[in-house]
Amino acid sequence: MLPDLELAIRLQQLDNRAGELTREIGSLPKHIAEIEKRLESHTRKLDADRAALAANQRDRKKTESDNQLQEQKIGKLRDQMLDAKTNDQYRAFQHEIEFCEKEIRRGEDRILELMGESEPLEKNVKAAEAALKEEKAQVEGEKQQAIGRTAEDKKTLEQIKQERSQIVARLNANLYRQYERIRKARRGIAIAEAVDGRCGACHMAMRLQFFQDLKRGEQVMTCESCSRILYYQPPVETEDIAGESASAVQG
User: Fold this and answer.
1) Are residues 225 and 131 in the same domain?
2) Do 46 and 113 sit in the same domain of this protein?
């Protein structure tokens, strides 16, 4: 294989890897934003549960306070009943006391209702607080992992850029211009391997003579269909391990 073609193949490998790293670096902030958004959603749900529990406790406290006022009012009415001059006045005080007692019973029913509602609310808040604490730790771990991965990717990308610059400096200028032109036109893939007489990129079959010329590796050739630079990698010959063992026994 021509030395310049070997350099171009390595250049393609570096550019492929650089593209992968660049995409990953770009995706990590989005990943962080997604997990933070999920955390924010759960935080809002916890805030809503806390608000519902607080409202329940306020209603209960107010109802208990109202009942106390009614009880105080009943005490005053009983005192006033002692000074009633007529039966009508006495009955009026009785009716008012009955009304207050009815309001107290209604308030007590409401307190029991609120107590029943508060129990699941308290459980929800406690469960949500525990889950949120665990999720915050998990999110922080994922963020730190993403930050570390980004730093590692950037370091690797810088190393790739340095090696790429070295290869470009050694590569034939005309071939490099051709490589860049094809790479821009073909979504980043300028070089393809010929496999079984077909272009490894567009998968179009090659003419027999064209494939034979490519296998000789005497010149840079491009696919007649997609115009990518082609290379041929001869199959690796594997030694007969069993044969070697047999020779060793015979020896």
Assistant:
1) no
2) yes
